[in-house]
Amino acid sequence: MSTPDIILHGTELSGHTHRVELLLRMLGLPYRYVAVSAAVRSTPEFHQLNPLRQIPVLQDGDLTLADSNAILVYLAKRYAPGSRWLPEEPLAAAQVQRWLSIAAGLLRFMNDHLKTRHFLAAEHVTIADLACYSYVAHAPEGGVPLGDYASVLDWLRRVEALPHFKPIPPSPIPAA
Q1: Structural domains in the chain?
Q2: Cα distance between residue 37 and residue 10, in whole Å
Q3: N or C: which end of the chain has fewer CB within 10 A?
Q4: For the segment 5-29, what is each residue's pLDDT rounded down to a tens digit?
Q5: pLDDT class for 1, splitting at 50, 70, 90?
Q6: Which residues fall within 8 angstroms of residue 61, CB to CB, at 6 or more apart?
Q7: Cα–Cα distance for residue pair 3/84, rounded to 1 Å
């Protein structure tokens, strides 16, 4: 059995790694996961992969790419061109980019937005939903309760119901 050309370097508890792993799974792409500790990130070998020493890093054959948002866009364009994950229509693509930028915050804004929609940037799931999911779903672990955000909770359930969904493990550090 051959090993996949796609290698994802990251950590299990990283929301940025998780969003990339979710898209890889949603696209049905075989990949190899390489767990990267803080000690590994300080090595010269990892510095060659990403001079900023941040995760995740994706290798796809001869290509090495860092930054989770850039990786999401690359995967959607490379392996699912013209798909709903990253729409071609200019306004829809701009709305996806907007949510990629917002990703980890603004729960009240997100909740109000989701009162009349099923997903963030379009009426179907896009990479914007995957990018935002990882941090929003685990906001309670950081002491940010979601109980007042019913539309966000409904959206989380819709994302979790997607085929090939994989949850991010809970943090071993108890919430304050």
Answers
A1: 6-79 (3.40.30.10), 90-160 (1.20.1050.10)
A2: 8
A3: N
A4: 999 999 988 889 999 999 999 999 9
A5: very low
A6: 5
A7: 28
